[in-house]
Amino acid sequence: MMKILGENFKRIRKSKGFTQADLAHGICTQATVSIVERRNQVPSTKILMQLCQRLEVSVDKIIV
Questions:
Q1: Which CATH number applies to 6-55?
Q2: What is the pTM of this model?
């Protein structure tokens, strides 16, 4: 079972200067980003890949 490291995801997002809305723009809703960070909920693979691409980080840095 995959689990996302929400705190790690949030730290990376902030270090890149993105707000939740900035990161989500054109990919998903801001609420989806919030759920990933606060509830460690894994979004769809497509959304996850696009978010990681925007953050310039590999998926294995935020998934266990």
A1: 1.10.260.40
A2: 0.91
